[in-house]
Every structure is written in structure tokens, then in C-alpha cells.
């Protein structure tokens, strides 16, 4: 993967008639797995289509993998894979035929395309089903087939639009595991989802959209608050809280979880000592972590 930004956007605007879908979006994101989050209708799919050149912006600048869009549309599409949200697979084709054709479109010779299709179908767990017609696939199998066609030409970047849509918990976990594995093949990913926990478990960076605007564009590590200790107590949390307060800390208690801050001191040392003083134990001790849902409900954060 490259150290250069995989995506750079400045003052991007797009509207469907009188309905503004993308309203002055600006952001720059690094290589890795990028989460594109927001409620349904926030502009996520529209933004992905603008990155591919399927839609043309009304105003602004887009660079994908260092190429200006839409001026270099063909260059970008040859290096990018696309997994759409909707059911778009031809029902009367086998997975092997479809993937082989997709690989040929990506520039592979026929024999190499067939081998590549077989390899990728094995990677996504469809090796046994590769000669079945896709019209008979389950939702989970269809999602895997769509992911396979997005990566069969060995792209530098894949755009995944709601990759876990319609999946049961087991299927969701398996799909997210596949998305994480893209790193092993040097493939960057932009994952669009309204399921915030999916993004938290797979991504390094998050771009949060609401009403066509960017609420936040930051690494997920920025959600941690390093000067506040969060400790989950086994025992009496009130006794631990009292011990921490005697040491000069400020403590918030939420059931068995304490948030300990200590201006001028080390909240982690205070938390450890307070647990010992109270004769308790802890299940977890770390920096306070804010979830994406917390950030979204608070209206985001434009810092960074």
C-alpha cells in the first residue's frame, strides 16, 4: 500500500434536481480501511458513485489514487473495484463464468482469468458453489460473489457499499473477516455502512456524513480519550470511587464502570491503586473510548 492519500476531495457538490445530496464535502483519507458512515440518505452511495465517475459533480475536485476525476475515469476504474449494494448478479450465470468474465474485463487473458476466478471464489468461500447458477444463491453467497467480482482484477482500492446488508449475525461476521483480510493482498477499502459497529470493528479511519456534509474525518484511534481512565470493577465500585476521590481524582460511576480523570496526575495509576485500596479487582482498564454512535448523536466533530 502507498503512503499517499487514496482519496482527496475538495468542495464537492452534487444534487439530484433540487435535492442536494453532497454539499461542499472536503476530506483527505490515507491508505487502509476507511469507514464511510451515516444514516440512510446521508450521501454515502452518491459519494461512491462520484468517486467512480458514474455521477459527475456539479462543483469541486476529486482525486482517487492520485488521479483527477472525472478526467481520468478509465485509469481510476482499472485500479478500483466496486461492490454495489443492490442485487445485481446475473441469475442465469454460474459464479465461475461470471467471475471469469469480470477478470477478462479487468484485462486478464482467458486462461489466466479462469484461474484467477477460481482462486478468488475459493478466497471468499464459494469454491464448492462456483458452478452453481447465482440465481439460486442465498443472500450471503450473493454478497460473497459481489465481493469476489470487486477484487478479481487485483485492484488497489475497493468500494464496498453496505457489504453486510441482509446478512445474519454469522454471515456478517464472516463478511467482516473477509474485508479485514484485504490488507493481506495490498487492497485498500472504503466501506460504506450505516451499521456503526461494523465500521468500528474493521476500519482504521472514519468519514462521517450527515445531510451531504462531513461531520468528521479522523482515525478511529482519535475516539479514545487518553487522559481519562475507564475501569470496569469486579466488587464494590463505590468503594473504588471513594478511594480514587481521596487521591484527588474526579470520578464518574456508571454501574460497575468508573471514569477517572486526574488533572496533573496519572488516572491509570490512581485507578490501579484505588482498586487495591478497596480490596476489589477489575475486568478491564484502559483509556475512555467514545463509540461512533456517541459521536454521531452528538453531531460529530470537524476537528482533523
Write the layout of secondary structure elements.
Layout lengths: L6 E10 L2 E11 L3 E5 L6 H9 L6 E6 L2 E3 L3 H7 E4 L11 H11 L4 H14 L15 H13 L5 E5 L7 H13 L6 E6 L2 H7 L2 E6 L2 E7 L4 E11 L2 H10 L3 E5 L2 E5 L5 H11 L3 E9 L2 H6 L7
Parallel strand pairs: 3-8, 3-9, 6-7, 7-8
Antiparallel strand pairs: 1-2, 1-4, 4-5, 9-10, 11-13, 11-14, 12-13
Describe this structure in words.
33% of the residues lie in helices and 31% in strands. The chain has 304 residues and is α/β, with parallel strands linked by helices. It folds into 2 domains: 7-211, P-loop containing nucleotide triphosphate hydrolases (Rossmann fold); 225-289, Alpha-Beta Plaits. The chain has a 6-stranded mixed β-sheet with strand order 6-7-8-3-9-10, with helices on both faces. A 4-stranded antiparallel β-sheet has the order 2-1-4-5. Strands 12-13-11-14 form a 4-stranded antiparallel β-sheet, with helices on one face. Helix 3 packs across helix 4 (110-123) and helix 8 (237-246) crosses helix 9. The longest helix is centred in the middle third of the chain and has 14 residues, at 110-123.
Amino acid at each position: 500500500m502507498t503512503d499517499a492519500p487514496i482519496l482527496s476531495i475538495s468542495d464537492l457538490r452534487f444534487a439530484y434536481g433540487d435535492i442536494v445530496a453532497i454539499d461542499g464535502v472536503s476530506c483527505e483519507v490515507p491508505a487502509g480501511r476507511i469507514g464511510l458512515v451515516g444514516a440512510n440518505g446521508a450521501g454515502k452511495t452518491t459519494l461512491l458513485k462520484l468517486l467512480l465517475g458514474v455521477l459527475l459533480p456539479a462543483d469541486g475536485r476529486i482525486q482517487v489514487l492520485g488521479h483527477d476525476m472525472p478526467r481520468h475515469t478509465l485509469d481510476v476504474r482499472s485500479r478500483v473495484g466496486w461492490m454495489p449494494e443492490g442485487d445485481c448478479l446475473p441469475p442465469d450465470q454460474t459464479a465461475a463464468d461470471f467471475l471469469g468474465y469480470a477478470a477478462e474485463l479487468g484485462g486478464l487473458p482467458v486462461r489466466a482469468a479462469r484461474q484467477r476466478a477460481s482462486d478468488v471464489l475459493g478466497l471468499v468461500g464459494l469454491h464448492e458453489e462456483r458452478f452453481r447458477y447465482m440465481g439460486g444463491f442465498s443472500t450471503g453467497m450473493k454478497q460473497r460473489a459481489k465481493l469476489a467480482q470487486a477484487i478479481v482484477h487485483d485492484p488497489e482500492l475497493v468500494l464496498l457499499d453496505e457489504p453486510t446488508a441482509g446478512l445474519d449475525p454469522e454471515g456478517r461476521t464472516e463478511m467482516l473477516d473477509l474485508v479485514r483480510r484485504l490488507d493481506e493482498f495490498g487492497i485498500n477499502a472504503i466501506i460504506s455502512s450505516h451499521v456503526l459497529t461494523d465500521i468500528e470493528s474493521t476500519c482504521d479511519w472514519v468519514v462521517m456524513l450527515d445531510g451531504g456534509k462531513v461531520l468528521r474525518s479522523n482515525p478511529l484511534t482519535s475516539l479514545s480519550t487518553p487522559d481519562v481512565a475507564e475501569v470496569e470493577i469486579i466488587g464494590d465500585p463505590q468503594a473504588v470511587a471513594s478511594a480514587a476521590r481521596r487521591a484527588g481524582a474526579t470520578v464518574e460511576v456508571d454501574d460497575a464502570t468508573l471514569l477517572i480523570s486526574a488533572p496533573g496526575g496519572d488516572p491509570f495509576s490512581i485507578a490501579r491503586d484505588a482498586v487495591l485500596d478497596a480490596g476489589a479487582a477489575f475486568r478491564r482498564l484502559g483509556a475512555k473510548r467514545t463509540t461512533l454512535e456517541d459521536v454521531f448523536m452528538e453531531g460529530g466533530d470537524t476537528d482533523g
